[in-house]
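Proteins fold reproducibly. Look at a sample protein:
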Amino acid sequence: MPEQYLPVLLQVLIAMGFAALVLILSVVFGKSGKQNATKDSAYECGMVPVGDGAPRFSVKFYMVAMLFVLFDIEVVFMYPWAVQFRDLVASNGVTVLASMAGFAGILAVAYVYALKKGALSWKS
């Protein structure tokens, strides 16, 4: 059984040896790079890297983004229900429509609550 692993072990050893050899040869024969302020500065797509790297966003941006994700996921849940609506009504009757109406009602209440709280208002 161990003799079956010999080709794999040999391939791993050859790969590691080749990687080590290439790294050693690049250090021995490679040119050393010159360091200066221009080469050591961060590259920002042609822009001079000045100021803070990460701009600050308003909390309103995150609130709108989270509400979008929540309501978008709810629509994703509604799509398979709509595709199977005829089969579901045939097997379960009107309770299927009532359950989705309740689900949509809860979403409507949540949307009205978000509007009343001003979560979608940019000026506050």
In short: The helical segments are 6-29, 37-40, 59-83, 85-92, 95-117. The mean pLDDT is 86. The chain has two domains: 2-40, 59-117.
